[in-house]
Amino acid sequence: MTQIEFLNIVMPFKDKVFRLAKRLLVSREEAEDATQEVLLRLWNNKKKIQEYKNVEAFSMTMTKNFCFDKLKSKQAQNLKIVHSNYEDGNTPLQKQIELNDSVDWVSKIIEELPEQQKMIIQLRDIEEYDFDEIAKMLDMNNTAVRVNLSRARKTIREKLTNTHNYGVK
Amino acid sequence: MVLNNIEKLLEKYENGETTLKEEQQLKHYFSQETVAPHLEVYKPMFAYFLVNKQEQFTKDIPLKTKRTFNYKWISVAAVAVLMLGFYFNQPDNSCEEDLLGTFCEPEQALNEVTRSLAMISSHFNKGASTVNYLNEVNKGTATLGYLNEIENTTSIIFKN
């Protein structure tokens, strides 16, 4: 397989891999490294690529596992930097700023979700995969995915309502 | 009513029962400028999803066509070297006169061989003829046999 053929396979979903890695690892640099690593591993195993039924799903699973490994080793090193306790008390002045601020809030809320729900939100609401694909990628069953998704969505909505009404009620 | 529909969809959405198409509708609705005030809460969420989808991986991938060194080629090379070694070590057919006992012409070699064989046989015969003196010794010992006879007779005499 030549580089061009490989890139043709990989290009459509490399951004998705990156975004999933970023969702899990938070930092952009780390997500880039993770994506690179995942793609390189794919490249090194390019002979087996034809055997995989769904390269994209396979890569997503690989990314998930790789990021979990990273997170684990990070926790072992005790170097976790938590910056999600940052609170913005300023009342937004403009609608646009308010919206941006709320968008930021959404990202923070998602960051606080359990890993599983984070990934499902990412895969469903951002990447728009269907349930079967997500179930396959995460090695879960279909209903478990739905339940987790529903929980995640409800949590986001509740927290958003809280922040939205902050200072109003 | 559209709003009614959206509300229904939102409920389904929160239960994780919407299809991808229905979610598209929701995203489309919330990407509008004006949204029903009581649904304002959802706006940042869908806005976030849309914004997040734009993010791209910009770092390039260092795809090195890694030269996978194939160890089987080592054996091939080794065999080749061995063959070459044998080939160059082979005694060449060209004739070298200065080597002791080699001749280029078979006739000459035959002559030389017969000559040396003749020499060997003549010398051998010479040697064999000197060995003939040993026969004289045998003769001597045979005459010594007579002494035994004498002894015998003397012993008979002394017995009596």
Automatic annotation (TrEMBL), chain A:
<feature type="domain" description="RNA polymerase sigma factor 70 region 4 type 2">
    <location>
        <begin position="106"/>
        <end position="155"/>
    </location>
</feature>
<dbReference type="InterPro" id="IPR007627">
    <property type="entry name" value="RNA_pol_sigma70_r2"/>
</dbReference>
<dbReference type="InterPro" id="IPR014284">
    <property type="entry name" value="RNA_pol_sigma-70_dom"/>
</dbReference>
<dbReference type="InterPro" id="IPR036388">
    <property type="entry name" value="WH-like_DNA-bd_sf"/>
</dbReference>
<keyword id="KW-0804">Transcription</keyword>
<dbReference type="InterPro" id="IPR013324">
    <property type="entry name" value="RNA_pol_sigma_r3/r4-like"/>
</dbReference>
<dbReference type="Pfam" id="PF04542">
    <property type="entry name" value="Sigma70_r2"/>
</dbReference>
<dbReference type="InterPro" id="IPR013249">
    <property type="entry name" value="RNA_pol_sigma70_r4_t2"/>
</dbReference>
<keyword id="KW-0238">DNA-binding</keyword>
<dbReference type="Pfam" id="PF08281">
    <property type="entry name" value="Sigma70_r4_2"/>
</dbReference>
<feature type="domain" description="RNA polymerase sigma-70 region 2">
    <location>
        <begin position="11"/>
        <end position="75"/>
    </location>
</feature>
<protein>
    <submittedName>
        <fullName>RNA polymerase sigma factor</fullName>
    </submittedName>
</protein>
<dbReference type="InterPro" id="IPR013325">
    <property type="entry name" value="RNA_pol_sigma_r2"/>
</dbReference>
<keyword id="KW-0731">Sigma factor</keyword>
<dbReference type="InterPro" id="IPR039425">
    <property type="entry name" value="RNA_pol_sigma-70-like"/>
</dbReference>
<keyword id="KW-0805">Transcription regulation</keyword>
<comment type="similarity">
    <text>Belongs to the sigma-70 factor family. ECF subfamily.</text>
</comment>
UniProtKB/TrEMBL annotation, chain B:
<protein>
    <submittedName>
        <fullName>Uncharacterized protein</fullName>
    </submittedName>
</protein>
